[in-house]
Amino acid sequence: MITFDQLIPKLQEIFSNHNEFLQLTAPIYINRDLNGRVRLIVSTKWQSDQRVLEKLAIISQQMLETLGKRAFPIEQAVLFEQSVESVAFGAPVFPLEGVPGVSIIDRLATQGNWSTIAPASAEIPRVVFFSIKGGVGRSTAIAASAWSLAQSGKRVLVLDLDLESPGLSTSLLPIDRRPKYGITDWLVEDLLDNGDEVFESMVASSGLSHDGDIFVVPAHGADSGEYVAKLGRAWMPKVNSSGQESWSQRLQRLISLLEKRWSPDVILIDSRAGIDEVASACVTDLGANLVLLFALDGDQTWSGYRILFRHWRTTGVVREIRERLQVVGALIPELDGIEYTVGLREEAWSLFADELYDEVPAGSAATEETWSFDSSDEGGPHYAWAIRWNRGFNSLRAMHSRLNGIDADEVSAIFGQVIQGISNAIQGEDGS
Fold first, then answer.
1. Assigned CATH class of 126-430
2. What integer pLDDT is reported at residue 404 of this predicted model?
3. CA-CA distance, 302 to 347, in Å (whole number)?
4. CA distance 52 to 178
5. Angle between helices 408-430 and 138-151 (to 10 degrees)
6. Taking the model in full, what pTM does it have?
7. Which residues, in sequence order, are bridge partners of residue 160?
8. What is the full DSSP assignment across 213-280?
9. Which among 128, 143, 149 is positioned nearest to 398, based on CA atoms?
């Protein structure tokens, strides 16, 4: 039997031999279920057409012979639906590459799928701090960025969405300033339409604010309470008279409420690391205008991002997300830092060139229709914004007191490229 990864290439081989038939009957959907088995979904209008039925039987037989247990028996291989487009029920749908008229409906056990990209926020810019691996200094960078933006007069809203490994609030809020509730509390209360009970008590103003404001929404409140039990319910979809609202849609609704209530100039979001559904929501579902991809120069980083980029390319959404991405070189070492940064940017360029950039034929110049950058182009998203490793900023526990008396020049020297990049993004969004 073929493996899961061989499924799509084999389907492409099968269907590429039936182009004339597909032009007649399109659209055709291939339903890939939770077990990785596939069958066809076609319109009921073909159910009485004997020629179409005979052709579908031939394709079904080829699928069974080629795919083995990953295909359904002939008598179960085709489903007829009145409204073919409505059978996805919120599952990701993407075209079978190279086969016009055929798409795959991908049933997943989790709600996070990475292949549905929400439009970028048209009002308040949202910046997501994301990494494949933890321990790369994301939270520290958010704290420093929030501090610097507030110093310049901005109202900054900071969300700790690393719910399974919370800690950002400790860097921006001393114990006596932490709010009673947090994001997890709201997600749980909202299931019973009780979100208003905690809403006004889940945001705290950081004492680091000077010319501007820093509002912090932690993962949990000052008293975490039954956090594990609450976390096990936070991801639940909400069912009401209008249907089902996924947890990421609920989270989007919460952010809209926070925007309306606190009127920030920018929202900084600390995402969970890794390729899970929480990170998926942060990167693809919340309307991010800028997604910072934190990177250490190593195989784990690049192989992880390659998996993600390739998924975007396979599911046909790469053009919707790629222009929002920016690599951040995290924890650049003090010794040989220049050489390290050059190597990191070269690895990032190789990855982007393979998976995200448009291919430019040799001897040709890039045009307005192509999206590609040379390895040395500082405007390319592969050209990492560097964050220098610094002993004083390495401990989150000391972050609040460290920033409270830090020299602005030192913050700029360590985090300056990230802070400037975010500032440019904000200016680009509001047109100022």
1. alpha beta
2. 60
3. 8
4. 65
5. 80
6. 0.85
7. 270
8. EEEEE-SS-SS--SHHHHHHHHT--EEETTEEE-HHHHHHHHHHHHHHHH--SEEEEEPPSSSSHHHH
9. 143
Cα–Cα distance measured from residue 297 to residue 333, given in angstroms and rounded to the nearest whole number: 11
Residue matched to tokens 């309306």:
260
Q: Which amino acid is at 406?
A: I
pLDDT for position 112: 63
Q: Give the mean pLDDT per block of 10 residues along the chain (432 residues).
A: 90 94 93 93 93 95 95 94 78 90 86 83 95 90 91 94 81 84 93 93 85 91 89 86 84 96 96 88 94 95 96 92 96 90 96 93 66 94 92 55 68 92 82 50
Q: 330, 305, 325: which is closest to 379 by C-alpha?
A: 325
Enumerate the domain spans of the chain: 4-106, 126-430
Q: How far apart are CA 116 and CA 130, in angstroms?
A: 17
- Amino acid present at 266: V
Of the candidates 254, 260, 176, which has an alpha carbon nearest to the alpha carbon of residue 217? Answer: 254
**52 burial via Cβ count (<10 Å: 0-12, 13-18, 19+):** middle
